[in-house]
Design goal:
Helices cover 40% and strands 17% of the residues. By secondary structure, it is α/β, with parallel strands linked by helices. Strands 4-10-9-8-7-5-6 form a seven-stranded mixed sheet, with helices on both faces. The chain has a four-stranded mixed sheet with strand order 1-2-3-13. Helix 4 (65-77) runs antiparallel to helix 11, helix 12 runs parallel beside helix 14 (412-433) and helix 13 crosses helix 14 (412-433). The longest helix has 22 residues, at 325-346.
């Protein structure tokens, strides 16, 4: 490869820096040229193994043939009408299919937006319209989006909320139950009771909103016992329960909806990411009586439920069923957790491995007691893996968690190749530290 070709990423990064504001971050100094399955080729022709999947978006893999075919067929027909002006079948069909499988009590209804943040904002609108209450309780460490409302719900300051306030009123945060970081289920429930006692009476709370597995917060699954207690608390006080399934949904955890693992039924569910297979679409699904609360015209948007994205999402649902991606997710998750534990142990690391299905993470610590997060090791591992052409992302309130978000369609051979690179990267870092 000639020197000019090898400089393409650097040249494009320079153009990016000049043209874009610094607030638009980028995990890797890399520009994609094409992608297929779980592999990306950059503008210099290098091949990377993708353990990020566009942040759990291409669960069906990059450019899945059925998803691409469905989107292309829709583009040949028409690309946009605005559903609220001239409707189309794919929107209604997608709503019907999601309603049929949504784990809510009684009949369900759905509508579509373009982004996860829009879905969350609209879920709050629906909850307030139904309950006629203003308050919303979210959880520390949560991530619900980057708009002003969703930043208010997000339970992490840097980098998302830095300099962005003030945020909307009537949003409160309770402790998230994470035994490893010293917060028990009882602590979290007590935190909610303290909010009721000191900040807002339960009769003014419209909804609880919670991720069944915290995403940006560190890939911590919510204990089933806590979700059951939260459901009971919501029922006691007439509060709605919103499950934010934007990162956990569409087979990522071994179920179409992660909350299905608990048996708890939410009142409203938000989806995005994996739903469109790479095309921008989000969904708000909920109990029919709740969803009918807003008046006509209170919901929607110009690009909401794009016909191209609806066609792609229907294909994604087909692929999930036909290729048994929920079962595949569980199998991949077991293999990743076992291998990560072997790798970290062999490298002499202090760690915790956890996950639901293929939503898997490894958290690094400086001490055997797991009280001192090791963000330096985590950052070094992402960088070393990138040098070896494996894409990883970190997360967590302390920046010490590696989250694996593999496309669920990748082969066993490619999974092992990627894990081999991760192991080689961690061994290199460990030997340098030693």
């Amino acid at each position: 490869m000639n020197q000019a070709a090898q400089a393409q990423n650097a040249l494009m990064m320079a153009r990016r820096t000049a043209a874009l504001p610094r607030g638009v971050g980028q995990a890797h100094p890399l520009f994609a040229n094409r992608a297929q399955g779980a592999e990306i080729w950059d503008v210099e022709g290098r091949r990377f193994i993708d353990f990020v999947a566009g942040i759990a978006v291409v669960n069906t893999g990059h450019c899945h043939p059925k998803v691409v075919e469905a989107a292309a067929a829709q583009m040949d027909a028409f690309t946009h009408t605005c559903f609220q002006v001239v409707a189309y079948d794919s929107y209604v069909t997608l709503a019907e299919r999601l309603n049929a499988i949504a784990p809510v009590s009684g009949p369900a209804k759905s509508f579509f937006m373009s982004t996860g943040a829009e879905a969350v904002e609209n879920a709050i609108k629906v909850a307030r319209a139904y309950t006629r209450r203003p308050g919303v309780i979210a959880f520390q460490g949560a991530f619900h989006g980057r708009t002003c409302m969703t930043l208010g719900l997000t339970g992490k300051v840097a980098p998302y909320k830095t300099g962005m306030g003030p945020f909307p009123a009537e949003i409160y945060h309770a402790p998230f139950p994470c035994e490893m970081h010293g917060v028990s289920i009882e602590d979290s429930l007590h935190g909610i009771e303290m909010l009721f006692k000191n900040d807002i009476e339960p009769e003014r709370v419209a909804a609880f909103i919670i991720e069944p597995v915290q995403g940006e917060g560190g890939y911590y699954p919510v204990p089933t016992e806590f979700l059951q207690a939260l459901r009971a608390l919501a029922d006691k006080h007439g509060i709605l329960l919103i499950a934010d399934e934007i990162q956990t949904g569409m087979a990522r955890t071994g179920k179409v909806f992660a909350i299905e693992h608990s048996g708890v039924t939410p009142d409203i569910i938000t989806m995005a990411k994996g739903l469109g297979g790479g095309f921008p679409i989000s969904a708000v699904i909920g109990r029919a009586d709740v969803m009918d609360a807003p008046v006509p015209g209170g919901l929607g948007g110009t690009y909401a439920g794009s016909p191209i994205a609806c066609a792609a999402a229907l294909a994604v649902l087909d692929v999930v069923a036909e290729e048994k991606l929920c079962e595949r997710s569980l199998e991949l998750g077991e293999r990743m957790q076992a291998r990560l534990a072997e790798i970290a142990t062999a490298c002499g690391c202090h760690f915790d491995v956890r996950g639901l299905g293929a939503m898997v993470a490894i958290e690094f610590f400086k001490d055997a007691e797991r009280t001192l997060p090791d963000a330096d090791l985590t950052k070094a591992l992402v960088g070393e893996a990138f040098k070896r052409q494996l894409l990883l992302l970190s997360c967590g309130s302390y920046g010490n968690v590696i989250r694996l978000m593999i496309p669920l369609t990748l082969s066993d051979a490619l999974l092992e190749e990627g894990l081999d690179v991760l192991e080689a990267s961690l061994r290199e870092i460990s030997s340098n530290k030693a």
